[in-house]
Amino acid sequence: MGIAVIQTAAADSIFTLWEDPPLLPDIRFADVQRQELTLADFRGQYLLLNVWATWCSPCREEMPALDRLQEEMGSTIFKVVPVSIGGYDTSGINLVKEFYLKYQLNNLGIYLDSSGELSSSLNVVGVPTTLLIDPEGREIGRMVGSAEWDSNETVRQIRSHMRPSEPQPNEITSDGEV
Description:
alpha+beta; nine-stranded mixed beta sheet; 5 helices; globular
């Protein structure tokens, strides 16, 4: 991604934020049907792109919270996209499907890094790593490590990084409608 200035995150922020959000490379990964996707396929939406692996203990702990976050905020303007990486994950989608069944993940899509290049393309140094991406494909910020993604504070922080002029996912209006 080149040299860029990173804004120090506020003490209460879970994200390290970019002062000038860089455009991400159009990384490739596959969905559960083994169809190739790129970040461009999600343009127009905010993404919480989570890079994880089935063998990663912190990933196992946070995946249910990501599933609940997708259930709460998932919409046409926001989506959680968990991309599984790692030696075993790329060799078979069945391992990831079993993981989803074991942890009762019903709201998240299944995505795999079928090329093995996602981590290097996104400068991921460890899993889990989560990127908040704007509708134009720029990385707003990132979190290395696990988080309680469905906590009120984390949801508030995610919403605060979305443009105020855009409707917020599942936000109740003043007349009581969603």
